[in-house]
Amino acid sequence: MVDHYSLDFSTRLTFNIKGKTTQEDGFDWKAACVDAGIISLITFFTGIGTLVSVDALSLNSLVILLTACGSEFMGMLAMKRGLITTSNDKK
Asked: How far is CA 88 from CA 7, 84, 91, in A?
């Protein structure tokens, strides 16, 4: 009989605000797009779930949600590219 259960929910994923660099191009666009896409999809599916749960899913709300996700995607790319600086970068 097992007296206790041990679950390890630790993750090895890291999120870097600054983008990665490559030897060839200098900036890893693929990694930056994947990171921005993951964050934007989390927002999208959270928004869809919220709209469905409160029975507010309509064409207008879907357009607003897609606009917000697109803005978040582009903002993440701009941050990773260095166009937007964080308060830690200004020091």
From this structure: 35, 12, 6
Domain ranges of the chain: 29-81
Burial bucket for residue 48 (CB in 10 Å: 0-12, 13-18, 19+): middle
- Return per-residue pLDDT of the chain as tens, 91 residues: 445 555 555 555 555 666 666 667 678 888 889 999 999 999 999 999 999 999 999 999 999 999 999 999 999 998 888 887 766 655 5
> Among candidates 88, 51, 80, 52, which has minimal Cα distance to 68?
51
* 42 vs 49: CA distance, rounded Å: 11
Task: Read off the pTM.
Answer: 0.69
Structure tokens at 73: 């995607």
In total, the chain counts a number of residues equal to 91
